[in-house]
Each structure stands twice: as C-alpha cells, then as structure tokens.
Amino acid sequence: MTLANGLITVRLHTAPQHDEEFNDWYNLEHVPQVSALPGFVRTRRYFCESTDIRYLAWYETAGENVEGGPHFQSVVTDPTPWSIRMRKLYGENRERMNFKLMCEVGSAPAPDAPWMYIVHTDIPDHIVDEYNEWYDKEHLPRCAGIPGVQRARRYARAACTSGHGGPQYLTAYELTGPDIWESPAALAARKTPWTEKMRSLFSNTRRALYRLVAPAITHEQAIKMQRPPVSAA
After folding, report:
1. Closest CA to 180 of 95, 103, 102, 109
2. What is the mean pLDDT of residues 171-200?
3. Quick check: helix, strand or coil at residue 202?
4. Using an 8 Å Cβ cutoff, are 66 and 3 in contact?
5. Are strands 169-175 and 55-61 parallel, antiparallel or unpaired?
6. Rounded to 5 degrees, what are φ and ψ at 179?
7. DSSP structure string for 54-80
8. Do residues 203 and 120 make contact, with C-beta atoms less than 8 angstroms apart?
9. pTM above 0.85, yes or no
10. Torsion, Cα of 43, 48, 52, 56 (10° steps)
11. pLDDT tens digit sequence for 94-119
12. Which H or E run contains 208?
C-alpha cells in the first residue's frame, strides 16, 4: 500500500437544512472523484458540532506535492455541475490546507477510529528546533501511550493553493471514544515541565474533537466506485 506522507484537509460548512444533499454530494460524487486521482491514498470525513465550520474531509496523499499537481487542480478548476451547486451553498465557509507528515506513532486503526482530536498551532521561529524535538521525543510518544489513543501523527504546512492562511502545524490523535483526551491518564501524559514550556509559546492555536462520519475510502476503492456524475435536482 502506498505510504501517506502528505495530507490535504478541507473544512466546509453549509446551513443545516442542506446537510442531506451536502453529505450525498460528498459520499456519492466528490470523495470517489477526488480519491481516485493519482497520488491520493485514502479519504475520511469527520464532523464537529462545536466549530463554525462543521465538516472536515481528510485526504491522505502520497506526498505534499499532490495538491498542487495537475490532477487535483483539474477538479478545482473544472467542477462538476453538482460541485458548482455545492460551492454556492458553502460559499466562503471553506478552508483547504496542505501538509507533509513529520512524525507518526502507532499503526492505522482497523476499523477506523471513531473520534479524532486535532490541534493546530504556530510556534516562534527561534524555538522551532526545540519544538520539534519536544514533540518527537516526549510529547507524541507520551500521548500515543494514553489508553484509548490508537495513533498519533503530526504534520507541517506545505505549499497551499487555496489562498487561505492558517497555523503551521497540525497534530491528530485517533481515539476510541470522545472522553479519552480529558481522561486522568491523558491529563497526566500532558503534564510535564517541557510541555508547559512549549505550550506557553503556542500561538494561533485551534483545538477540536471530530467524530468520524464516513470511514476510509482507499484510492483503489474509489476507482471501482467511479460512475457518471450525479446531477443536482
């Protein structure tokens, strides 16, 4: 299986009255279309009630250059009729970011973990080397050892073609339940002098707990799912 060394995240939001069509579009057309493109490895979708942009598409890619490549950009610049309609519904409520994998602890859960806790942040340039050392040598291994954490991965921003800014770093923890991250074991794992020092330097930080709403579709499965585009009613 192709290694997923890159990641494209797309956060989208539509008014709740359009949720049914929005999910149909994603599940029946958009995810199979995008995931079948060269360089895409697998795709999952998540939902977060507590954020302004509620839906998250999580596209794992072979590398950080896939987003800017011709195959993905052809989908962006030449949307289907249904995609055009959905763009009108979500409007400016979209954020697309492109990352490269920096560190991974643990194996891919099977079946997919039902929850994922995500932390975005920036860190001052003068402390980046220590930040990376802290994450790789202490923080990520400690967090991956928390009961209920199935895998921990962290990423750094790569080139982004969507025109959006956003934090430089992303860390994702795949969880067996929604309360894992606030459990006594998790709080203990995150309470060290080094962690307190690093967290005091975070800026532009975002944290959110996401629930899995569509399990992984692999590149190979997406190719088999290809069908004529579904027309909007």
Report:
1. 109
2. 97
3. coil
4. no
5. unpaired
6. -100, 0
7. -EEEEEEESSTTSTTSHHHHHHHHS--
8. no
9. yes
10. 0
11. 999 999 999 999 999 999 999 999 99
12. strand 203-218
Rounded average pLDDT over 144-173: 87
Non-local CB neighbours of 82 within 8 Å, separated by 6+ positions: 25, 29, 229, 230, 231, 232
Distances (CA, A) of 56 to 11, 93, 125, 144: 4, 12, 28, 22
* Distance between CA atoms of residues 181 and 120, nearest Å: 16
The residue with tokens 């009108």 is: 88
pLDDT digits (tens, 9 = 90+) for 13-38: 999 999 999 999 999 999 999 999 99
Residue found under tokens 């991250």: 181
Show the CA angle centred on residue 138, arms to residues 105 and 60, nearest 5°.
30
Q: How many CA atoms lie within 13 A of 230 on its CB side?
A: 18
